[in-house]
From TrEMBL, chain A:
Protein name: CIB1 protein
The UniProt record lists the keyword Transferase: no
Keywords: Calcium, Magnesium, Metal-binding, Repeat
A GO molecular-function annotation: calcium ion binding
Boundaries of every EF-hand domain copy: 104-139, 149-184
Family matches, as Pfam families: EF-hand_7
Transmembrane segments: none
UniProt cross-references to SMART domains, sorted A to Z: EFh
TrEMBL record, chain B:
Entry keywords, A to Z: Membrane, Transmembrane, Transmembrane helix
Gene that specifies this protein: Tmc7
Protein name as catalogued: Transmembrane channel-like protein
Composition bias, Basic and acidic residues: 55-79
Source organism, top-level taxon: Eukaryota
Annotated Low complexity bias: 34-49
Lineage: Eukaryota, Metazoa, Chordata, Craniata, Vertebrata
Organism encoding this protein: Sinosuthora webbiana
PANTHER family on file: TRANSMEMBRANE CHANNEL-LIKE PROTEIN 7, TRANSMEMBRANE CHANNEL-RELATED
Chloroplast among keywords: no
One GO cellular component term: plasma membrane
Occurrences of domain TMC (ranges): 457-567
Region (Disordered): 1-79
Amino acid sequence: GAMGGSASLIPRDLLGEYQELTFLSKQEILLAYKRFSELLPKEERENAWSARVPKSQILTLPELRANPFQHRICHVFSTSETRDDSMSFEDFLDMLSVFSDSATSDIKSHYAFRIFDFDDDGTLDRKDLEQLVNCLTGQGEESRLSSTEMEQLIQNILEESDIDKDGTINLAEFQHVVSRSPDF
Amino acid sequence: EEPHGAAPVDFLQELPSCQSARRRRGGTQERRPALLGTTGSRGAAARALPQERGGPPDRPARERPECMAEKRRTRDSQQVDTEHLSRWEKWRRTSSKSLKKALSEVKGLSSYLVLWRHDIRSIEGKFGTGIQSYFSFLRFLVLLNFIIFILMFSFVTLPTIISKYGIFNSTIAYISPKNIDNICTIYEPNGNKGLVYFYTYLKDLLSGTGFLEVTSLFYGYYLIDAVWISIMRYNLPLAYLLATFAYLALSFLWIIKRSVEGFKHNLVHDADPFQSYCNKVFAGWDFGITDPNAARLKHRSLQYELQTDLQEEKQKQKIAERSMEEKLRIYSLRILINIIVIAILSGCFYSIYRVTVFSQESSNDVDNANSQVNLLVQYLPSIVITSANFIGPLIFSFLITFEDYTPAFEIKLTLLRCVFVRLANIGVLLFSLWSQISNCGSDKCKPCGYNYKLYPCWESDVGQEMYKLMIFDFIVILAVALFVDFPRKLLVTHCSWKLVQRFGHKEFEISDNVLEIIYGQTICWIGTFFSPLLPAIATIKYFIIFYVKKIVLIHTRKPAARPIRASSSNFFFLVVLLIGLLLAFVPLGVSIARIPSSKACGPFRNFNTSWEVIPDTVLQFPTGLQQILFSMTSEAFAVPFFVILCIIMFYVIALARAHKRVVEQLREQLVLASRDKMFLIRKIAETQRN
């Protein structure tokens, strides 16, 4: 039904290319196209290729709505030149590909590092970790850890993952600690 | 100190190692090429991750952490590279690519065949991966039981049915028993011929006696020595025994395979992976949650978990600083409580033993005396076991609060005790059954080796007990869901007394539910030898339980205060299941190898014990093969084999220890290297300033 309709809107070679360049299957790409075009206003649905969906629209997706890292995810995957975190269809596919089950853990850990790096400086320092923990425990004053608890927690995290003891976690250390993490 | 905080990051770019990594990347650019010139934070971010760009050149494009436009450029440049390769290389690459594509298509199609795929995904979205792991575990058991049923049915029941009805020109061969007392072969199960009350049918359905006893459900039906299908001779006793071994081996291998898949074991580093803070923080958020309510609950549970862990750490420090007299007091208290626990367990076991003996004696003495009471007496062992399984954990979780362990250890120890209670109860039941069957006082078993008067077909009796346990377990699960969970929920929503609100809310206790179904599965494993169609009943039972639990979950759920994580729970379930399987080996081993098989029914009546089919068959092999098999089981082979295994194990352990030492040394080197780096950067900054 609707799936068949959108299939005719994606040329076959482009579909094949997306299958090759992402971890998504054909059905998943078509479904993604459908969801993406639903986020656009009706007039723009014809050129879903070049259209960019503003961040506010992307955040209405149910998968992102409940996610505390929603802003970081949009920021990391967006290739917008105006730095407004809007996403094109290809950015959207990139995002779905990294979160799919068949993506390698290498890619997942790389993007997780980028998402957790709140100040975009290439390392996770104490401020980043503090913001990360606050995101995890929820918004609102009563759901934050006290400052002593936060200190203790960050101390423990750095002890476990900072191999070269420079007070920050770089990408290699992050990937190492995550590879031994059974829940990732 | 550094002149300003940003200096180390900028200088990191100038380091020779970063420069060489960038040169190695060659033409591939960074994620936002338009921002290369800017010195904003994004530019620094793009430049500050040098070493992971690119990577080995033949990494396929989709495995690179770049945006879509970059991946296209990489793939095009890869293709340009390959154009100068030989024709053989080109063909190899295109064929491997098309093979991968075909495999992914097949995988996509086969994912539709997975049972309950949509249900489990929606549960994961609403309730998180911890509870979802319980439901995938249930699905695994349904599949396992189904395969065991197919195995037993096709190798044991199907040939029997074919031959009994003469399909395909098949006949049954009966070999008359030699040197067995005729008295052992008397077996007259009353198949309820003639007019009987409907109630009797119900009673028979629930307790496996009467008309059910003579069906293919129980061991007694398979009174066949060989089946002739046209000209082929099918050795049914051998098939029966081998099918039993096959399903045990299949379950064992499948469980091990699943536990290896889900568990990343760390032999080198000592840290406990499940308690690690990094695991909780970096892998803490469940990205599958789509429901805002579930997200709120997850936030709260994460906060609670982190706070409890931090408190636990403080408590550990306190424990380490305990004084000698405090330690003495605590240890003596623990010993006392362990003695109490053992006393409770012995009380449990003794009552099960007495009840089983009583139930067997009364069902053997008075036939059909008082039907209602008779049914209750038949089910008495099941009732006692189920109440013990229910009361035991309550007592244990009450007692453990006095033992002053850390919360994590408390949970583990309580779970261990509950597991032990559940599985040992089955063991005690079987033990008491055997004590009855081999009750050889005053020459009751002289002719046949077992108590032939009371148990002419003892395997069917054991099968009936297992059948009753399974049916009762199923009834209890349904009854609890219907008469406890739903009324509780109604009470909580409509009655706002403080007391009701505090005790009324029911959490979905994953570990309790899992122990319940593992208990059922252990019964199934033990019982399948005595009742080949039992796995079919188990499959249907778990199928229905899936839907029942799902409905209970959706309507009556409150999140558990201490959440169990998905990974640790998966491994825990499989370990307990494995313990159940290994426990099932014991009674089966004793039944097959030690207790003489009944001479009045079943396929093994011409053999002393059920195991003897195999030596008999081996003796019919050609002498060369016989020699090989005998030599493999003799001491001359076993002892060197064992010694070699020990040597290999020691070698592997020594290797692991050596690796661990190397890793420690490398870590120290990294720390020193990083300190050198900081020192050099400071020097450079100083010289630049001057």
